[in-house]
Each structure stands twice: as structure tokens, then as C-alpha cells.
Amino acid sequence: MEEILSSNVLVLNRLWQAVNICSVRRAFMLLYQGHAQVVESASGSFQTMTFAQWYSFSRGYEGSDVVSTVSFTIRVPKVILLLFFDRMPKKEVKFTRHNIFERDHNTCQYCGHKFDRKDLNLDHVIPRDRGGETSWENIVCSCVPCNSRKGNRTPQEAHMRLLHRPRRPKWRPMLHLQLSKPRDDSWKHFVDLAYWNVELSD
User: Fold this and answer.
1) Are residues 36 and 131 located together in one domain of the fold?
2) Where are the alpha helices (DSSP H) in 39-81?
3) Which of 9, 30, 73, 149 is the most core-located residue (most Cβ within 10 A)?
4) What's the rounded mean pLDDT across residues 24-34?
5) Which pTM was predicted?
6) CA–CA separation, 94 and 4 (whole Å)
7) Is residue 96 part of a domain?
8) Does 202 reside within a domain?
9) Is 3 exposed, middle or buried (0-12, 13-18, 19+ CB in 10 A)?
10) Are residues 66 and 84 in the same domain?
11) For position 164, which CATH number holds?
12) 3-state secondary structure of 72
């Protein structure tokens, strides 16, 4: 039961744009409160259902993707539509170690080789004691040998060239979602639509 309640549900905004993923538990809360409806595919088209309608629709269903209580059994929704939200989430990406590795594709930005994350360091392009900031624009992935070779110098001083100038990423949430999250077949239409219509940047 806990595993089912923690599984993923695709969230659409009021304009039917994919904007997030939430847990089944959260999806049921939004449905019960009337803030969302279930999106169900039928014969190539989509229909929406309230919590009560979805509960009725679940009767007689014999699949394993259900939540059962003492008094009732209800199917797990795969996609929900928010009724009062029409914005896209902000595309600001948090400055974290994980996201730096994601941006640099687990690749040393000096030698160009890909490594396991445990074999990578985060290097200040301009050393901290030379005024270098800990920011998107001054941190890159570096393997241990390249990090040691560079030492407390700038790349120019160490005669090393960066593969790419470090920048703050501009990932759109759904593009990142498309590449990094397992998805249900029922998501395909909405996630693919988001993928092809995402604004590209350098």
C-alpha cells in the first residue's frame, strides 16, 4: 500500500500542460478537495472525472493499481488536471552538487572523460582565495587528476582548457522530467508535447 501511495502521478495545469509529478497520496488529496480531476484516456480522447466519478468508475476494476481501505477500493490515477493553476513552474534550477553533475553530464570539464560521481570533484575555475565565487558560473566537474594538476591556479595559468564555459542552466521542468523520471504510458501524450514545445537555450 505504501509503495502504491508513493508512486508517481503526472500533474497538468489548467491549460493541460504537464507541470509536475506528485505522489498518489498527494493526488488523492487534491482530488478529494476538489482542486483537481482525474484525466482518463478513452478511445484516443481524454475525459476528466471528479473524485466521486472516479470512485464510481473504479467499481468492478480488477487491476493491481488500486488503493483499498476497509470501506472501499479505488483505482490509482495516472494523470490529474489542476483546476485553478494555469502557470508553468519557475525554471530556476537549484544550485546543488547533484545539479552541477547533471549540467556537466558527469564529465570532467578539463579532460572530457566521463566518470562515476564518486570519482569527480567540484572545482572553482577561479580559486576561492583569488576571489572566485561558489556559483554556477565558477564551478565545474573535475576528475581527481585534473583537479590536482590545476591546483590553486586558473585554467590559463595551468595551461588547461575548459570544455564549456560554466553557466547557470535554464532547464525547463518538463524537459528535465522527460529525461530523468520513469513515466507511465498514459503520460506519453502530455510529456512528449512538453518536450517538443520546450523553449531551447544555449
Assistant:
1) no
2) 51-58
3) 9
4) 94
5) 0.55
6) 28
7) yes
8) no
9) exposed
10) yes
11) 1.10.30.50
12) coil
Distances (CA, A) of 112 to 5, 33, 97, 160: 42, 51, 19, 12
All residues at 6 or more sequence positions from 20 whose CB lies less than 8 Å from its CB, including other chains? 11, 89, 173
Q: What value does the mean pLDDT take over residues 145-166?
A: 95
Residues 53 and 121 in one domain: no
How many structural domains comprise the chain? 2
| Whether residue 32 is found in the same domain as residue 96 | no
- For residue 36, the number of C-alpha atoms closer than 13 Å in the C-beta half-sphere is 26
Residues 133 and 57 in one domain: no
Pairwise pLDDT comparison (199 vs 39), residue with the higher score: 39
Alpha-helix residue ranges (DSSP H) falling in the chain = 2-5, 24-32, 51-58, 97-103, 144-150, 173-180, 188-197
The CA distance from 152 to 85, in Å, is 49
| Pair (81, 106) in one structural domain | no
- How far apart (Å, rounded) are the C-alpha atoms in residues 37 and 47? 10
Residue 132 structural domain: 92-169
Q: What is the rounded (10 degree) CA torsion for 161, 165, 166, 167?
A: 180
Beta strands in the chain (DSSP E): 8-12, 18-23, 36-42, 45-49, 66-68, 73-75, 79-82, 120-124, 139-143
Q: Do the beta carbons of residue 88 and residue 177 sit within 8 Å?
A: no
